[in-house]
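All the exercises in this workshop are built on plain-text protein records. There is nothing in a record beyond a sequence line and a structure line. A learned vocabulary of local backbone shapes supplies the integers on the structure line. The question running through the whole workshop is how a given chain folds. Here is such a record, shown just as it appears in the course material:

***
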Amino acid sequence: MTPEIRTEIQTPEPRTFSRRLQLKLTAGTVIINLLAFCLAGVSLYQSWDQFHQRAIIEARNHLQILERDIVNSLDRVDFAFLSVSDQFEQQNSDARADQAELSKTVARIFARQPDLEAVRIADAQGRVAIGSGKLSTQVFSIADREYFKQLRDNPQAGLVVTKPLQGKVGGKWGVILARRLNSHDGSFGGVVYVGFLLERFQEIALGVALAEHGTVDIYDRDLGLIMRHGKHQEEKIDIGNRADAKLLSEHLSKEPEQGVFFRQNDGKDNLNAYRKLAKYPFYLRLETRTDDYLADWYSQARWTMALVFAFFAVTIVFCWLISRLWIQREGVMHDLRAAKNLADSSSRAKSEFVANMSHEIRTPMNAVLGMTHLLSKTPLGADQRKYLDMISASGQSLLTILNDILDFSKIEAGRLELSNASFDLGNVINMLATIMTVNAGDKDLELAIGTEPGVPRIVIGDAPRLQQILINLVGNAVKFTQKGEVAGRRRCDAPAFLLTCHHRK
């Protein structure tokens, strides 16, 4: 009867991208891009702060340079005044003092100051009669001027700077610089004064490296505007106007020496840095539009954001590629699983076939062994008994092989177990000799199987497996020996058994 074998092959799962893995990949991509955006934002903020601090430092440096130049110019005038004061005191002590000679001395001292208006000297009553340049034929008095009164009443006044005044003749604006003159006895002897044009402040401000839309302003002691300079400054200013200094006044009340503030001008945020001159009654303010000093930062920000968006695009493409590769991998894995299922099905079919055939063969083999046993109970000759024993031994060996075939499935599963029972080793050797005698006799070979002294007769192990191994070893020796003898000896070389087979051609 032919055994029926059924084989089931599993259909591979569809090639889909795991939703859980897709969510993880998407979440990872989102987190990475958020981190990239955060890092870019922090970097841009730190860069913006650096540009901002740098602009503040540069503005303060420009104001320091401007203050130095203004102070130097005014100090030169004051130094000339001190020289005039020394000459005035010397000539005043001489009864023969000559006003004309003093005028020449003044002219010579101020010859190195071509940007100054005519220098004048007023006596203790305020009458102006000495000076450089062309003097009026009519004597006029400055006794009513505030700077004259201040110098007359305060011997420690030093250099006095007035508010801006407009000249009556030329219409030019300037400030009066004046210093007290003392007589030889230390009493008030008069005043030396000169007009310092505001144009001179404008010339000094030209040395400041302003930004494209930057401006620099100079204010008097009352925060009246006296000068404004800028690259695009075309309109005339209102000299003495204080309307533009309200915000500056508020910050001066908090930080009277120097400070920084921001204000809106023409819809733009402007950085304003201010500084009070230490020696003279002037305030300086430098205004810079944020667009000017942040121009490089805007370019850097655009490049940074472009890189961030490029990174975002790359991560999206990378995520898509991973999903595609994963789908391809899943397809290959499904194909491999399908091939494995097919191989497993074929293996199971083979195992079922061998098992069924083994059952089919074992049935007649048991009948042969049974008949051999019944035949052994009948009267037999010596040779007949010998041959019958050989048939019985060979049948038992074949039955053992059939049982091994039945355990084939256990061997494939790795669950084959060896028995651990005591058996007579001599019976196994005798059975080996009986089985292999027929094969050796067919090839006219001499078969010698024996036991060396000292080998224990009763041992523990799996007798059928040992017999199968010995049959394979001796069978191979007989198979590959054309003539001569095959010898097998059982020896006891502690701690293990050793079987040796020798064959001679």
Notes: Residues 139 and 227 are 33 Å apart (CA to CA). The chain has eleven helices and 17 strands. Confidence is low (pLDDT under 50) at residues 1-12. The longest strand covers residues 173-182.
